[in-house]
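Now for one specimen:
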Amino acid sequence: MKTSFPRAALFLAAPFLTSLSLMSVSPAAHATAPAPPDAEQRPHTVTAPHGATREDVYYWLRDDKREDPAMLAYLNAENAYADAMLASLKPVENTLYDEIVGRIQQDDSSVPYRDRGFWYYSRFETGKDYPVHARRADGAGVDALSIQTANAKADFSGEQVMLDVNQLADGKDYYAVGDWDVTRDNRILAYADDTNGRRQYTIRFKNLETGELYPESIPGVSANLVWADDNRTLFYVENDPETLLTVRVKKHVLGTPVADDVLVYEEKDDSFYMGIDRTRDDRYIVIGVGSTVSSETRYAPADNPETFAVLAPRARDVEYDADHYGDRWVIRTNADKATNFKLVTAPSDATSRRQWTDFVPHRDDVYIESYELFDGFTAIEERAEALTRVRVLKRDGSDEFVQADEPAYAMGLAVNSEPDTDWLRYGYTSLTTPATTFEVNTRTGERRQLKQQVVIGYEPSNYVTERVWTTARDGKRIPVSLVYRKGFEKNGTAALLQYGYGSYGASMDPGFSVTNVSLLDRGMVYAIAHIRGGEEMGRAWYDDGKLLNKINTFTDFIDVTDDLVKQGYAAPDRVAAYGGSAGGLLMGAISNMAPEKYRVILSQVPFVDVVTTMLDPSIPLTTNEYDEWGNPEEKRYYDYIVKYSPYDNLDAKAYPAMFVGTGLWDSQVQYWEPAKYVAKLRDLNTGAHPVVFRTNMEAGHGGKSGRFRRYRESAEMYAFMLDQLGLDAATR
């Protein structure tokens, strides 16, 4: 099911360094640094329902409308300070940016997929930031490879452009298309766009035959929409304008006033997300709602979606997601103590869990992540020993696994738009292998490579990926994915960049990034710590890193650092750490718990004021996440969260160098969290290392829009990291 975004937008960023000609940088560049901003303190007491109080003198920096002159003056002062601090590094930033962009094939395109007589794909044009969403009619000699060949030659004859996002984004500081869908008769496109990064979308309509843009639009929605079979009725999800919670499903009939749109379903429980979709066989439209610990699905015939039946009523601690194909539902669920999930089936008219029959049983050592239904087989995406794999379960009960050739990699199901085929598409990547799309014939075993990400100037045989296991202080084995250049010696002198996330059950699998290559070329090591709070080791790995076990996430990350240094992967004074969003919470926690172990902290859109945010149900996403962090209105959760919340645990001590980034329009981690954090950090930090705080005044949680603009932001941050590590710019 499609759902709204949790606070856990994944910042699996791939840090990078680049060829810096003959340049070398040093922290000494900031010997004459200007004085940082000093935010005003205003008395304010935050009181919990159980009576506990906390003083928050920077609470005034919160402004829901983002227009308070004093608040904006402070953010602008911090940006000016960042400009001054980083001015000497501008040549390094420019070089980083140029090299990153130089690695990218600019006129790239996605692998086409066929759906109802058309091949759909997205492509980029040289020098442009945004994609072109297009399609070609199916016919003799038209397939995925022939279309990719034509696109590579810039032969766009026979192509129909649905959306040229470059034109739509022209003149806008931020623009993104979040979702789109085409009517069953292939004539009308509905799409949702966002113009400030707050993920509050507006739906618009386009006639694909005439190019006409319809005058009507539907504001205040999530990026989730589905057409019914009549080619006139669109189902969409309406957001609450303040909390941005997905609260109502409505249907709009093209050509009628939006004010007349009919309410289809309203979710009263504000701890649930909501999404809509069509089933695999296009037979049903489904409404899915889900919290951290519970799920519920409603379904109605797509050709007459008037009445929605509940597939199985929600129950606490029972999660499920369902798809329909043929004459049955196939459901992934943790019901009946299936902690790592199992697959069950149910008849098409099912309305109760009593009608469920086990299909793929639960296993303690294998976590079922997702699945796809086909005529002759079921493809299952699984996770075992912190590695993903694709299992093909055939109709006769036999099964086989898609093979991988590296010790640390990521594999998953790709777009498989047609169920009546023997061919299965899947994606493969690793820290050394660029993203690759394969298709394998499940009957003959034949495998074809449909596309591999082109990385200009990159030779994968020059690099080595490794999976190691470290030991946490409580004895748990923690997997770590590593990559370095061939010839690297574990002699305890190298610089290390360690990434982590560890929340929401989100698994940080090792994938290739063009930005990592130059880091490795300078002898650095890049590591992903698969810490508790993710699901790399199954559902228990997640449960052991949330709620009253959350501190395990932070100590795991620190213990990985200690172990990697002990094993000689890095010098103890040359470790940098990076995380974003909930990974920024991780960065704030380790900075308080073990500041001496990290030379540089890179923290993007960090969730650092956990107590105040989780006490305020008016803030977007708060109520959805009580089962992730705990509701601090209950004293036991309050007392536990206060022990680790980064903002509350800042103290008079020497902190590492820090680069903290945020977006003014962020709807997931509000800008005032990092703003308050930095202001308080400046009061208490006794160390000499710089703290830089950068606010993107035109963007939200994901940074600037466009494929190149975000690299400019990354280049600035990593120029800062280079400077602080004193890394020799010459490649090895």
